[in-house]
Design goal:
Helix content: under 10%
Strand content: 35-45%
Largest sheet: 14 strands, mixed
Number of strands: 28
Structural class: mainly beta
Mean pLDDT: 74
Shape: elongated
Number of domains: 2
Length: 476
């Protein structure tokens, strides 16, 4: 469904001055800006470990202006909401700080630019339970402006939903059911002495050479926690079947490789690894000798993630082919398409922008934290007909979060200077002289005062002439 809206904004207010009974006023001027709202239905899917294990249905309301002035930003806004009872679901238990990001892709084509505009937005989450619902960002936005008049056609394309887990650390005790102890090589020791400082006062231990334990985890790092003891032996580590870094460690030695003299010092982090891609991994710990090895627990680490994991992305597509919307860029420098002279346009019947480099929208855009990221990709169209002194550019502006501004120049910059540089405020600088905010009312008031003074001066002159009329035999 398409809804058209018209808005009026005042460009200048009246200025009134009263001086000696004289009333002066400046007229009001206004301009119009046309906007359109489009309601669309989207369906989102992702992998089995993603945020949409079953299809999620969204209602999207696209809002943009269809009549603009040159240089005025075309702000494409996506209002996003759940359409029914389906929801994006948390892929795990997360402390506050997880982020759901949305990227709406619009295809743009026309005589000014062919490319894509990405509208971005995000919503930071509260505490999330495993399988619990995730909140959506209410609005995502992206803008583009041009330096030449013309027309564009815009078609909404895919919507990408990304989930980014927060940075966190979680300690898992040795008796957690997710830990797999191979065979009967390991014994469970409970009610340990408090001075041992074991996690939950228990450990698993073995003296069998070759005894193994495996621990599945999801994150970017993991630690092995044990007891430091002069009687302990060497153990080997592997992540997803590949040697860890380092590959071995010995709890009977300190960090410099020197033997220790302590016994049963629990909650000791013997080994750790960071910088893994965020996904599910498996850590395998294997004994290499007949000395004691103890498992006190594991620490799962998720470092700050700059790029949302691909396996937690959902791809949303419109249920029906959207209609293109035509946008007119006027040549005036005012608001609303040259002072409102451009009438509202109707959506184009074409289903997709002609000449778009990616009409299918199958390639996901680069994701980023609402943290700072570029918001559009562009491919310049063929050079429009213009004089040598014109420069045509498309400026892709930032999304709700601070972004870098990308400028795509469609024609060569003129080699001949268009404006001669003279001191600021000179006749040919193209700049206005420095003014103060009170200059307008002051000039109007001064004009009124001068007018009143002139009137009284004229009356005085006539009276003097009348006083001397007898000497010159003049009749007044």
């Amino acid at each position: 469904m398409v809804r058209w809206r018209a808005g009026r904004r005042t460009l200048a207010a009246a200025v009134v001055s009263v001086a000696g009974g004289v009333l002066l006023a400046l007229p009001l001027t206004s301009a119009r800006a046309e906007a359109v709202e489009i309601d669309l239905n989207y369906t989102c899917v992702s992998g089995p470990q993603g945020v949409a294990p079953t299809p999620v249905n969204l209602k999207v309301t696209l809002t943009l202006q269809t009549a603009l002035a040159v240089g005025q930003p075309l702000d494409v806004r996506w209002g996003v909401a759940y359409r029914d009872g389906t929801r994006f679901l948390s892929p795990g238990l997360f402390q506050p700080g997880a982020r759901l990001s949305a990227t709406g892709v619009s295809g743009i084509s026309g005589d000014l630019w062919n490319g894509e505009l990405n509208s971005l937005g995000y919503k930071d989450q509260a505490l999330l339970q495993n399988g619990g619902p995730i909140e959506l960002p209410e609005l995502i936005s992206g803008a583009v402006s041009t330096t030449q008049a013309g027309t564009l056609e815009l078609v909404p394309k895919k919507l990408f939903i990304d989930f980014t887990p927060p940075a966190s650390e979680t300690v898992v005790n040795d008796d957690d059911p997710s830990i797999a102890y191979v065979g009967s090589d390991w014994a469970d020791y409970n009610d340990r002495a408090p001075q041992f400082k074991d996690i939950h006062e228990d450990v698993h231990a073995s003296e069998v050479t070759g005894a193994e334990v495996s621990f599945p985890f999801t994150g970017t790092g993991v630690d092995f926690i044990t007891e430091q003891d002069y009687r302990a032996g060497q153990v080997q580590f592997a992540i997803d079947g590949k040697p860890g870094i380092p590959a071995t460690a010995d709890a009977s030695k300190d960090e410099n490789g020197n033997p220790v003299v302590v016994a049963n010092q629990g909650n000791h982090t013997l080994w750790g690894m960071r910088g893994l891609p965020y996904k599910q991994h498996t850590l395998t710990v294997k004994k290499l000798d007949a000395k004691w090895a103890m498992v006190d627990g594991f620490r799962v680490v998720t470092e700050q993630i700059m790029t949302p994991p691909k396996q937690l992305q959902a791809v949303c597509t419109p249920t029906k082919k959207p209609t293109a919307v035509r946008v007119t860029i006027g040549g005036g420098g005012g608001d609303g398409g040259g002072g409102g002279t451009t009438p509202p346009t109707t959506p184009s019947s074409s289903g997709s922008p002609s000449g778009s480099p990616d009409p299918s929208g199958s390639t996901p855009p680069p994701s980023g934290s609402p943290s700072p990221s570029g918001s559009a990709s562009a491919s310049p169209s063929s050079t429009p007909s213009q004089s040598q002194s014109q420069v045509v550019a498309v400026v892709v502006q930032g999304s709700p979060t601070p972004t870098a501004t990308t400028t795509v120049t469609l024609t060569a910059t003129p080699t001949v200077a268009q404006v001669r540089v003279t001191p600021k405020g000179g006749a040919q600088t193209g700049e206005e002289p420095v003014r103060t905010s009170a200059s307008g009312p002051l000039l109007v008031g001064s004009g009124g005062v001068m007018l009143v003074i002139g009137v009284f001066s004229g009356v005085a002159l006539l009276r003097r002439r009348a006083a001397h009329s007898g000497d010159r035999n003049l009749t007044v």
